[in-house]
Design a protein that fits this description.
By secondary structure, the protein is mainly alpha-helical. The protein folds into three domains: 3-57; 73-167, Receptor-associated Protein (Up-down Bundle), CATH 1.20.81; 171-414, Receptor-associated Protein (Up-down Bundle). Helix content is 72%, strand content 5%. It has helices spanning 25-34, 54-57, 73-88, 93-100, 110-121, 126-131, 139-151, 154-209, 217-252, 254-266, 270-291, 296-306, 310-324, 330-336, 341-353, 356-413; strands at 3-9, 15-21, 38-44. A three-stranded antiparallel sheet has the order 2-1-3. A hairpin with a 5-residue loop joins β1 and β2. The longest helix is centred in the C-terminal third of the chain and has 58 residues, at 356-413. It is extended.
C-alpha cells in the first residue's frame, strides 16, 4: 500500500510530521483527520509525483474573494447533511470541514470548504465563515446556523436545514415535472404547424394555382396565411422579438411585477399551483427559523426575501410592522388580506398553545399535499386541452388541403 508523508498541525497549533499508509491521497487525509490533526501538506504515494497539496487544504496566498457557482437546492441539502453526519459521528468541526474539501458532487466547491476551514481555524464561528459566501449560503442558512451555535445544537440544526432544502427541492421538482409534458406538446405542435405552413402547404398551393377552380374558403384562408408568412416572416420575427422585449421590460418594473404576481395568485388553474407553493414556502421557512430560535422579526425579514412573490413580500413586510407594534403574528397576517383564513387560524391556535413553529410546519405539510393534488388535477385538465387545440389547428390545415383536392378531383371528373 502506498506510503504518504504528511505535515500537519494539532489542536494547539504545533506542527507535526509523520507517515501513513493509504490507498490514495484522500484516504491518507481521512486517516490524518481521524487522529485529530489538520493536514497542511501530503506527499508521496506509489506512482505519484511528490507535490505538496496545500491547495487541497487551503492556500493562504490564494485570493479570498473568488466567484463560485450557486449550488442547487438538492446539492446544498446534500452538503449540509454530509457535514451534519460527520459532526454527529464525533468529528471536530475543523476535521469535518477538512473532509468536506474532498467531497465530490456536493455542489459546493472545494475552494469554499477550504475558506470555511481557514476561517474556523482562525477562531471564527461557522456562521461567520458562512456569511462570507452569501451567493452560496442564503441568509436563512446563516441565521439558523448562528442560532444552533448559540443553543449548542449545531448538528440538529444542520439536519433540519438539510431536510428543509430537500423538501424545497422536492416541491420544485414536482412543479417542473408537471410542466414538462404540456411544454413538450406545445413545442411539438408549433414545430408541426411551422413545417406545414412553410414547407408542405406551399407545394400544394402551386398545384392549386395551376387549376382553374375556385378553392373552398378553408383553403383560401390557408393560402392567405401561407402567403403572409412567406412574405412577412421577417416582420413576424421582429414583432415577436419586440413583444418579448416589451413584456420582459414591463414585468421588470415594480408595477408590472406586482400585477404579474397578483395575477398568478388569482388566475384560474394557475393559482392552484402558485398559491400552495408560495404559502407552503412561507410556512416552512418561517417555521424552520422560529423552531431554531431566530427572533420573530428577523425570521419574518428573512422569509420576506425567500418568498419570490412581491405581493406576499409586501404582506410580510406589513406583518413585520404590525408585530413590531406589539401585535401577535396572526392579527397582522389576517389584516393583510393575502393569507388564507386556514393559515391565520392555525397560527392563532399556535400562539395560544405557545407552539407557533409546529403550527407552521403543519401548514407547510398541508400545502405540500394540496400542491401534489392540484398538480395532478391541473395536468389532467391541461393535457387534453392542449392536445385538442393542437389537433384542431392541424386538422383545420389538413381539411383545407383535402377539400381543395376533392374539389379539383371532382372538376376533372366532369
Amino acid at each position: 500500500m502506498p506510503v504518504f508523508e504528511y505535515t500537519a498541525r494539532d489542536a494547539d497549533g504545533r506542527q507535526l510530521q509523520g507517515t501513513v499508509e493509504a490507498s490514495d491521497r484522500n484516504g491518507a487525509m481521512t486517516q490524518i483527520s481521524a487522529q485529530g490533526l489538520f493536514p497542511v501538506s501530503i506527499t508521496g504515494g506509489v506512482g505519484e509525483v511528490k507535490t505538496a497539496t496545500a491547495k487541497m487544504v487551503f492556500n493562504e496566498e490564494a485570493p479570498r474573494r473568488r466567484s463560485h457557482a450557486k449550488p442547487k437546492l438538492q446539492e446544498l441539502a446534500n452538503y449540509t447533511r454530509q457535514l451534519a453526519n460527520l459532526l454527529k459521528a464525533g468529528m471536530p468541526l475543523t476535521s469535518a470541514l477538512s473532509s468536506m474539501i474532498s467531497l465530490e458532487g456536493s455542489g459546493v466547491s472545494a475552494a469554499v470548504s477550504e475558506q470555511l476551514l481557514h476561517d474556523v481555524r482562525e477562531g471564527h464561528n461557522l456562521s461567520a465563515a458562512l456569511a462570507k459566501h452569501p451567493g452560496i449560503f442564503p441568509e436563512m442558512y446563516v441565521n439558523m446556523i448562528k442560532a444552533g451555535e448559540s443553543g449548542g445544537s449545531l448538528v440538529e440544526v444542520l439536519l433540519r436545514l438539510a431536510e428543509h432544502y430537500e423538501r424545497f427541492a422536492e416541491v420544485r421538482q414536482k412543479v417542473t415535472s408537471a410542466l414538462v409534458y404540456p411544454a413538450f406538446v406545445v413545442v411539438l405542435g408549433l414545430v408541426l404547424i411551422f413545417v406545414f405552413m412553410s414547407y408542405i402547404l406551399p407545394k400544394f398551393m402551386k398545384i392549386f394555382d395551376g387549376m382553374k377552380v375556385s378553392l373552398p374558403l378553408s383553403t383560401q384562408i390557408l393560402q392567405s396565411m401561407s402567403d403572409f408568412f412567406a412574405n412577412w416572416w421577417w416582420g413576424v420575427l421582429i414583432a415577436s422579438i419586440l413583444l418579448i422585449v416589451f413584456v420582459n421590460g414591463y414585468f421588470s418594473t415594480a408595477v408590472g411585477r406586482e400585477r404579474l404576481h397578483g395575477w398568478l395568485l388569482e388566475a384560474p388553474l394557475v393559482k392552484k399551483i402558485v398559491r400552495p407553493t408560495m404559502f407552503g414556502q412561507f410556512a416552512r421557512t418561517l417555521g424552520a427559523l422560529l423552531r431554531n430560535g431566530v427572533p420573530v422579526l428577523t425570521a419574518l425579514k428573512i422569509t420576506e426575501s425567500v418568498v419570490q412573490n412581491v405581493v406576499l413580500q409586501d404582506a410580510i413586510a406589513r406583518t413585520r410592522e404590525g408585530v413590531t407594534d406589539g401585535k401577535t403574528l396572526a392579527q397582522p397576517l389576517a389584516r393583510s388580506g393575502v393569507f388564507p383564513k386556514l393559515m391565520v387560524d392555525l397560527i392563532h391556535i399556535g400562539e395560544q398553545t405557545g407552539d407557533v413553529p409546529s403550527a407552521l410546519e403543519n401548514l407547510a405539510e398541508t400545502y405540500d399535499n394540496e400542491l401534489t393534488t392540484n398538480l395532478r388535477v391541473v395536468t389532467t385538465l391541461i393535457e387534453p386541452i392542449l392536445i385538442v387545440f393542437i389537433a384542431g389547428v392541424v386538422g383545420f390545415m389538413l381539411v383545407g388541403v383535402l377539400q381543395a383536392m376533392f374539389k379539383i378531383t371532382s372538376a376533372i371528373g366532369r
